[in-house]
Write a structure and sequence with these properties.
This protein has 457 residues and is mainly alpha-helical. 77% of the residues lie in helices and 2% in strands. Helix 10 packs parallel to helix 15 and helix 15 runs antiparallel to helix 16. Keywords: Cell membrane, Membrane, Transmembrane, Transmembrane helix, Transport.
């Protein structure tokens, strides 16, 4: 990557309202304040609706992937389904971010959830009437991707409108906890439903949950929202957002790591379907169990991240590297219990990476431009899965699942190591091993040249 232009040079070309700094709270919260943002009434209502919606969404995802696998017998087909759902984010993400900056986020979310309910109901009718085909799932996945591309940046920025800047970091962690707790419950319920009554009822549950989310959004007290002024439409808005982001290392380095993770390591449902069906012969119940184990680790990661004291680039790089390492270990697992244990650890480090990257990008961008910045981040994170889904599915089917998961973890490990070296050289840092201090065996400290320069100054 070419060196980024100086922050001052880029900032000078942008309005002052865009480049004002965002305050970051660094104190460690007491345990009773781990989820302090839930004290805000609007956010508490939003969180309840989001929790129910996430459970149903996970049920639909598991049912959808397993249904495609059963209808086609192909892991590649599952990867294509994932790609179609994420492909719109790759091409339309920046446009959606501009919409999030220009229009009311709450109305955007209500529109998106209403359309999502209609799509889920269509899947339910087709599945319950025994008329569903792979082509139907492909088409609905693509339309759902168009909904998601508009929903995600608006949802990310709307969290700030619910809690304000004071509780933003905590609210992001709470959102991650809710998503992973839903991921813990949803796959388990989906596995039971798939075995007992089929995929159709999982789709129906998601349709009802989307309607419930709309009702929760309608019940919010609009006078208590921290609504930011809409940005007037003008030429060069997307380029302005890109230039702003590239001027800040705390935004573009998380983008880069998110790209590697998205393409190679975010297609776990595809890999888990391959292991459940082709390696361990565990069926739909085993597939749901493996997804639940990933969510269990991710839930622990979300709670841990809520208590993170500082936002640093090293946290992003460490999380990405450790996530990749856990996937590499999973490729060597001799049995399903060991593979499941590796998935718990993988889920933990995946969430540590995602929350660190999300928080760092959000607090580094001012509200006036945050929608565009977050849409570009989501474009990388979700759009990368449109590329990685079919690729990893093809590897799992034509090589073998173990090779696929080894590549999925190995590339992010190498990327994290390379970025760590670049950042260490730019910051004149080095890794120190202290055998006398067991609690801090490994430490990152200034290099001798940097210490000498500091002493001279």
């Amino acid at each position: 990557m070419a060196p980024s232009p100086p922050l001052e040079a880029n900032a000078a070309a942008l309005p002052d309202t865009i480049t004002q700094p965002i305050a970051v709270v660094n104190e460690r919260l007491p345990w009773r304040h781990t989820f302090i943002s839930l004290n805000v009434r609007n956010f508490r209502i939003f969180a309840i609706g989001h929790f129910i919606a996430v459970i149903a969404l996970w049920m639909q995802r598991i049912a959808q992937d397993w249904l495609v696998l059963q209808l086609s017998g192909s892991v590649t087909a599952v990867g294509i389904t994932v790609a179609l759902q994420f492909l719109p984010s790759l091409f339309l993400g920046p446009w959606a971010g501009m919409m999030a900056d220009r229009f009311a986020k709450r109305k955007i979310l209500m529109l998106c959830q209403s359309v999502a309910a209609l799509l889920a109901a269509t899947l339910a009718v087709l599945a319950l009437s025994q008329q569903i085909e792979v082509a139907h799932v492909y088409g609905i996945a693509l339309v759902l991707g168009l909904v998601t591309v508009l929903d995600q940046p608006a949802r990310q920025v709307f969290v700030n409108e619910l809690v304000g800047p004071r509780y933003l970091r905590n609210a992001i962690s709470v959102n991650s906890t809710i998503f992973q707790l839903g991921g813990l419950i949803g796959p388990a319920i989906a596995g039971i439903l798939l075995t007992a009554v089929g995929a159709g009822w999982a789709f129906a549950a998601n349709a009802v949950a989307c309607c419930f989310t709309v009702s929760m959004l309608l019940s919010l007290r609009t006078d208590q929202l921290h609504v930011s002024s809409p940005v007037a439409k003008r030429r060069g808005m997307l380029r302005e957002g890109l230039n702003y982001a590239l001027s800040k290392p705390t935004i573009y380095w998380p983008w880069l790591m998110a790209g590697f993770i998205a393409v190679f390591a975010m297609s776990l449902p595809v890999l888990l379907a391959a292991f459940a069906d082709h390696v361990y012969d565990a069926g739909a119940g085993g597939y749901g169990l493996l997804n639940t184990l990933v969510a269990l680790g991710a839930l622990a990661g979300a709670i841990t991240s809520a208590r993170r004291r500082e936002l640093r680039l090293r946290s992003v790089v460490l999380g990405a590297g450790m996530y990749g390492l856990m996937l590499c270990l999973a490729s060597l697992a001799p049995s399903m219990p060991w593979f499941g244990a590796a998935m718990v650890l993988a889920g933990f480090w995946c969430l540590m990476f995602l929350t660190a990257a999300n928080q760092l990008v959000q607090v580094s961008a001012n509200l006036a431009i945050r929608g565009r910045v977050m849409s570009l981040y989501i474009m990388v994170l979700i759009g990368g899965q449109a590329i990685g889904g079919p690729m990893i599915g093809w590897l799992a089917e034509h090589a073998n699942p173990h090779t696929a998961v080894l590549i999925s973890g190995g590339v992010p490990v190498l990327a994290a190591a390379s970025v760590a070296v670049v950042l260490a050289r730019r910051g004149q840092l080095m890794l120190k091993v202290d055998l006398k201090d067991r609690r801090r065996l490994l430490r990152i400290v200034p290099s001798q040249g940097r210490r000498q320069a500091a002493a001279a100054s």
